[in-house]
Amino acid sequence: MACLFGATACHVDGNSHPIQTVKIGVATYRSDDTFIAALCDDLERLSKDKEAETGKKIILNITDGKNSQSNQNDQVDNFISQSYDVICVNMVDRTVAAVIIDKAKRADIPVIFFNREPVEEDIRMWNRAYYVGTDAKESGIMQGQIILDAVQKNPEIDKNGDGKLQYVMLEGEQAHQDSLIRTEYSVKTITATGIQMEKLANDTANWQRSLGSAKMLAWLDQFGDEIEVVLSNNDDMALGAIDALKERDMLENGPVVVGVDGTMSALEAIQNGEMLGSVVNDAQIQAQAMLDIACTLADGEDPQATVQRMNGQYVRAPHRIVTQENVQEEMDYLTQTE
Ligand code: BGC
Ligand code: CA
Question: Where are the domains of the chain?
């Protein structure tokens, strides 16, 4: 039996035709991150659709960097030594992407970075390096917009009526592009309309629900019901803030809480009125783009010509606002299986 494709695994279909195998290595920064876990689930599910559509066999090997760059470098080395067709990397430390690009280039294995964005100079090092993510600025602007719309409908959000919004800011990892940019643009979008914001406190909770809750408990003890708005760089930390409000029995008439991601738990909290809104960080679009780029490359073709939303070496998924008004739609979208 002749194996026409690739040097590695060779499968045959029912008529003994060789089936091309595409081996995709996916190195996550940590697999217990809610957003990353959702994206990996989407990769698994959408790769089945991709197999059906292309007739290729897709092997996905997803590793957990456990928040250590040296672990992740070893995992990438393994993918390279096992001649994977494409390597996808969710950098632990996005400032050292050049190391990965160097290795991949030497092995001539294209690399798709996702979610944690390398600097542009690094992506430009090689025309077979790509980035799939979002435009962080857009998510910050939309988060601010949620607050603006809510204040217009319900001026009582300014609980003490002093004409300013007293807020706390829960930030993601300090080195993550999304943290800094969401923080900046959420506030700017609100103040640009003339509404004054007064920051009571800000701190990082590293994207995590439990840390978000711990920070919020401390702030509630310090500021009591002075807090009118909780801006959170992601949904998990926003849910942590809600956990804290519940624990202190301050959810009712408490501050409005907004996040980013549109995770299922956040959508549920929006539906039941605990959370004001979120900005959908569309994991399905990002997973689809990664698979599309990977399979196009495996065919020796240029993704620029065929992959949706590809702009040079970049794909950026658009965000959407989600509030109680459209939450059902977003829930349906998240649970769709075709
Ligand atoms: C998401 C966070 C996630 C982080 C991981 C961000 O884009 O909004 O929820 O923890 O990526 O890198
Ligand atoms: Ca106020």
Answer: 3-134+283-317, 137-281
Among 211, 281, 286, 319, which is best to mutate for testing ligand 1, by the most ligand atoms less than 8 A from CB? Answer: 281
In this predicted model, what pLDDT tens digit does every residue of 123-136 receive, in sequence order? 999 999 999 999 99
Ligand 1 centroid–CA 35 distance in Å is 6
What tokens does 48 get?
């089945």
- The residue type found at 134 is T
Q: What percent of the residues of the chain are helix, what percent strand, and what percent coil, each to the nearest 5?
A: 45, 20, 30
CB-based contact 85:23 (threshold 8 Å): yes
The closest ligand to the CA of 182 turns out to be 1
pTM of the model: 0.94
- Measured between its terminal Cα atoms, the distance across the chain in Å is 35
**Confidence class of residue 19 from pLDDT cuts 50, 70 and 90?**
confident
If you compute the radius of gyration of the chain from its CA atoms, what whole number of angstroms results?
22
Which CATH number describes the domain made up of 137-281? 3.40.50.2300
CB 8 within 8 A of CB 69: no
How confident is the model over 150-209, as pLDDT tens digits? 999 999 999 999 999 999 999 999 999 999 999 999 999 999 999 999 999 999 999 999
Any idea which residue has 């999304």 for tokens?
Answer: 178
Question: Which ligand ends up closest to the CA of 36?
Answer: 1
* Cβ 281 vs Cβ 241: under 8 Å: no
Whether 3-134+283-317 shares its CATH topology with 137-281 is answered yes
Ligand 1 centroid–CA 163 distance in Å is 33
Residues with CB under 6 A from ligand 1: 33, 35-36, 115-116, 176, 178, 207, 234, 236, 260-261, 281
C-alpha span between 40 and 4 (Å, rounded):
30
Q: Class of the 3-134+283-317 domain? A: alpha beta
